[in-house]
Amino acid sequence: xxxxxxxxxxxxxxxxxxxxxxxxxxxxxxxxxxxxxxxxxxxxxxxxxxxxxxxxxxxxxxxxxxxxxxxxxxxxxxxxxxxxxxxxxxxxxxxxxxxxxxxxxxxxxxxxxxxxxxxxxxxxxxxxxxxxxxxxxxxxxxxxxxxxxxxxxxxxxxxxxxxxxxxxxxxxxxxxxxxxxxxxxxxxxxxxxxxxxxxxxxx
Length: 203
Known about the structure:
alpha+beta, 7 helices
């Protein structure tokens, strides 16, 4: 019942529950009172919040990512001197989302990340994406900052060295497959990444 109540009301803290609510001691007052009325202890309430947040975040991230890709593809089609191919539509193992093709060759391999936040950007990267970055010098991570109506507010990019500095270490018995980085706004570089810059029509 608590899970359904959280999903229905979608409280303002839900999108950032993973960072705001790190344990039972961080429970928001509204959900703590409701959980108590339902006979749940703090651990059970925290588990319910975590379950709802995972479902919410997964669907929200997929929708945001798709909107960011679509918006950037349209922008690129109007602003670069290259054929724009949305690779993610037919190959989810390429290690990037969009290819900019000139003369039959990929001149830029663009990994697209979208956000509506102004203060920071949360980036999920797979090991395959980072390995692709190492192999191809024209791989870049382009951040698309969206308005509420999914139009582009502005663009920024993240330098490869910033991503490499955040890379997790493999252990003796385990290796990482995906990572999450939350970068403050001052870590982002304004505009389009260098491989895209080289193809802009205005140049």
